Amino acid sequence: MKKIISNKKILIIIVLVMIAVLAGCQRNVDPSGATLPEKIIYLSTPWKDMLNESFFTAILVYPLAQCVNFIGTKLNSSFSGVAITTILFNVITLSLTVKSTVSTQKIQMIQPELAKIQAKYEGRDDQNARMMQAQEMQSLYNKHGINPLGSLVTPFLQIPVMISMFYAVQRADVVCNGSFVGIPLSIKPSAAFKDLAYGWPIIVLFVFMIISQFLSTKIPQLLAEKKKKEAKNYRAYKEEGQKGPNNNMMMYSMIIMVALLGWNWPAAMTVYWLINALANIAKTLYIQKRYIDNE
User: Fold this and answer.
1) Beta-carbon neighbour count of residue 39 at 10 Å?
2) Which pLDDT score is estimated for 70?
3) Number of structural domains found in the chain
4) What is the pLDDT of residue 166?
């Protein structure tokens, strides 16, 4: 169990790499990166056509693409279509991810105590020591009402959505034929960077996306650190908790991976990642106040 939790971020990075590979499996674009006309999803595109294409497209990609199309058409803005669709999905799935997010934040909060237990059994590889360590860690989880495996729900729930959103924004009519301040959201940030005079709004979005990704992963750490300092026994295990560099390295690796993917993906995905990160920040603050501070 401990290994599953400690390697959670590594697993997420591996899956992000898999997403990048899977993204190239469907031939929705031509060599120049433009979406093939027959692959564009319009508001008038019937669902049965998507079902004939694949079950994945019909169940996940099509609804997201049509939501983007509908909102984008009503508001005459492809940016709004992607942004509001992302917000709606986060609101709908909030009830499913609350427990997972609470577990994740609580695990960060008790990291010094976990480190203290690990230090206690450091160098002891016999079966009895491993069992005692596992029992003490489980008791700590029970004490704080934590289900370690529950913390994996949110990251892995986001994975199929991320893949689906990639294909949805790649194929949605309002993205393929729409624009943001006059610039198509179908272009890649890497292409926008080549002509800053024209593509600077996309670069600004991309930079804000990276900043928001950093904040969405850093804020839970800061809240956990604040909560730890409020604990009565904080000084007793403060030194054992100074094992942050590895966690920070994993955090930065995840942000770099998102940046690399976003650099060569449609700018609409930059909008998705930006709004999703801001939504995660809002959920983190809400859950901290509603479920953890008032516990």
Assistant:
1) 16
2) 95
3) 1
4) 83
Successive 10-residue mean pLDDT values, the chain, 295 residues: 47 55 60 78 90 85 94 92 91 74 72 78 77 83 73 65 84 87 86 86 93 89 72 52 55 82 88 91 83 65
How far apart, in whole angstroms, are the C-alpha atoms of residue 78 and residue 62? 16
Q: Structure pTM?
A: 0.72
Cα distances (angstroms) measured from residue 98 to each of 92, 151, 161, 166 = 11, 10, 17, 25
Does any domain span residue 127? yes
Compute the distance between CA of residue 44 and CA of residue 15 in angstroms, rounded to an integer.
33
The pair phi, psi for residue 149, each rounded to 5°, is -70, -25
Contact (Cβ atoms closer than 8 angstroms) between residue 93 and residue 200: no
Query: Is position 30 within any domain?
Result: no
Cα diameter, the chain: 66
The amino acid that residue 7 corresponds to is: N
Give the closest residue to 107 by CA, choosing from 295, 292, 279.
292
Residues in the chain: 295
The residue among 166, 177, 161 whose CA lies nearest residue 268 is: 166
CB 17 within 8 A of CB 257: yes
CA–CA gap between residue 135 and residue 129 (Å, rounded):
10
Pairwise CA distance, residues 72 & 42, whole Å: 12
Phi-psi region of 33 (alpha: psi -120 to 50; beta: other; left: phi over 0): left
| Predicted pLDDT of residue 277 | 92
Range of the domain at 72: 2-22+40-292
In a domain, 104, yes or no: yes
The label of the residue with tokens 């049965």 reads: 48
Can you tell me the distance from the alpha carbon of 235 to that of 269, in angstroms, rounded to the nearest whole number? 44
Find out whether 175 and 81 touch, Cβ atoms under 8 Å. yes
Q: How far is CA 268 from CA 182, 195, 237, 258, in A?
A: 14, 18, 45, 14
Task: Answer whether residue 29 is part of any domain.
Answer: no
CA–CA gap between residue 235 and residue 195 (Å, rounded): 54
